[in-house]
Design brief:
It is built from 10 helices and 17 strands. The chain is of the alpha/beta class. α4 packs parallel to α5 and α8 runs antiparallel to α9.
Length: about 500
């Protein structure tokens, strides 16, 4: 069989739903047209196809600035049967030809009463360092919030004169009042709307629970989806151990941003530095993956990511890409096979704005072979299984947090160790049947999961226990670390 692709571009909408399970009652079909075959592909990332594989219909690879790879969980299905499987789309940014795009940044600082003293001082120092490192032509806004908000610096294009004005804007910030995180985000979004055609980003800092405005995680997800719909990612920095990690994590995941845990004074500056370094290497923005499921294929779940539905298409926003950055889209599907020799499963398309601002589209088709012999039905693709395992590892870290919150460190350790043993076993079995060209990257992916779970379990084992001196703080630190660690596994 031969992978076929077509030139195709979908209308982009702006209404998203949260990550959930969605059944498609009216799947579609299409006529495929020819472009390139998967046997020309190279295994350049941990979750892309192997060029030596014969499953050419079950995988493809296309693209240049952003490379789109697609693969099925099972390349061969049983004729006349109903099978659960997966669709994995991987998008990877290339290095060659990247051009720095102008940055439209809103720094949203917590100045509530709990920030008084060293916390606020560290936050202001980190913001000053970032201001000095911004490039001429970047646009900066600074918002400070407690119960209310003040725009310390309206949207200002950086040059030698305005940079000094931005630094001066941080001179008289005083800690006071309660914490309205949503107020600060709303003000940041309003500032970003005053400029267009740039890379939009909100960098939010908080050290506490939201005590006014939006207070629940669901509400913050909705707020983050509003930011995402205007092309803005929201990255969050949690300071010390009293902030709500579930809120700051949800804001980042829902908007395609990053969450950082700043336990120590210098961690705030390091988080700001990482964010600016990533933004300075932006190679594409406003990226979306659209997956059109064929007749007989139903969506069971979009794993870990927000999405929207346009007709029967599933559209997943991926936002901005930096050099060498990779993001995945994982769908769990149910396929009802026919009596034919093969079955169209999905058409996968990627649309994005490249370095010049012009939009590009990459497209590939996925199809499965059908067989009447159960012995020829393929096992779950090794690279797809590695991606599924990432979600399971993230879930284990968050599951341990529930036990830690209840003061049951022992149960949390057991959860982490069980997940660790499962990853170790999968690392052996998955690697043994993985395509040779993909094994190094696949092993690296699983090794990262193994290392994260092992560290979390050992840190918890060594931590002061609940009821002892330092036990309460140790539990909070571990919860924050687990969230920061788990978020990248879902991307």
């Amino acid at each position: 069989m031969k992978v076929k692709t077509i030139g195709w571009m979908a209308a982009l909408g702006m209404v998203f739903s949260s990550v959930t399970v969605w059944s498609l009652t009216k799947p579609k079909s299409w006529d495929a047209k020819t472009v390139a075959t998967a046997d020309t592909a190279l295994a350049t990332g941990p979750l892309v196809q192997d060029p030596s594989s014969n499953d050419t219909g079950a995988q493809f690879r296309v693209g240049s600035v952003l490379e789109l790879s697609g693969r099925l969980g099972h390349s061969a299905l049983l004729t006349g049967n109903e099978t659960e499987s997966y669709i994995l789309a991987t998008v990877r940014a290339q290095t060659a030809g990247s051009v720095r795009q102008g940055l439209n940044l809103a720094v949203v600082l917590d100045r509530s009463g709990s920030m008084k003293g060293r916390r606020l001082g560290n936050a202001l120092d980190a913001a000053r360092d970032m201001i000095r490192r911004l490039s001429d032509g970047d646009v900066l806004s600074i918002v400070a919030y407690d119960t209310q908000t003040d725009t310390l610096l309206p949207p200002t294009r950086m040059d030698s004169f305005s940079r000094d004005r931005a630094l001066s804007a941080l001179s008289n910030v005083q800690a006071k009042g309660d914490t309205c995180i949503s107020c600060g985000i709303d003000a940041g979004m309003a500032a970003l709307r005053q400029n267009s055609g740039m890379v939009d980003r909100i960098l939010l800092l908080s050290d506490g629970e939201p005590t006014s405005g939006i207070k629940d995680v669901a509400g913050f997800r909705t707020l983050a989806s509003r930011a995402r719909s205007m092309g803005c990612a929201l990255s969050s920095v949690g300071v010390d151990v009293e902030y709500n990690e579930r809120v700051l994590s949800a804001l980042a995941l829902e908007s395609n941003g990053t969450h950082y845990f700043a336990e120590n004074p210098g961690d705030v500056s390091r988080a700001f530095d990482k964010e600016l370094s990533s933004l300075s290497k932006t190679t594409a923005k406003d990226a979306e993956v659209r997956i059109a499921l064929a007749d007989g294929v139903e969506l069971e779940q979009v794993v870990d990511r927000a999405f929207r539905r346009e007709g029967n298409d599933v559209v997943v926003p991926l936002g901005t890409f930096s050099e060498n950055e990779e993001k995945t889209v994982l769908l769990r599907i149910r396929a009802r096979s026919t009596q034919d020799l093969s079955m169209q499963i999905a058409r996968v398309s990627l649309s994005y704005a490249g370095p010049t601002g012009a939009r590009s589209t990459e497209t590939g088709n996925l199809q499965a072979a059908l067989t009447t012999d159960p012995n020829l039905v393929t096992p779950l693709d090794s690279l797809v299984e590695a991606r599924v395992t990432r979600t399971e590892s993230a879930d284990a870290l968050i599951g341990a947090n529930q036990a830690i919150a209840g003061g049951d460190f022992k149960s949390a350790e057991e959860k982490l160790n069980r997940a660790l043993n499962e990853v170790r076993e999968k690392r052996k079995t998955i690697a043994s049947r993985a395509p040779a060209a993909a094994r190094p990257k696949l092993d690296q992916d699983l090794a990262a999961q193994e290392g994260a779970l092992d560290k979390a379990a050992k840190d918890l084992e060594a931590a002061p226990k609940p009821g002892s001196a330092g036990g309460e703080r140790a539990g909070k630190v571990q919860q924050k670390r687990n969230v920061e660690t788990s978020n990248p596994f879902r991307l």
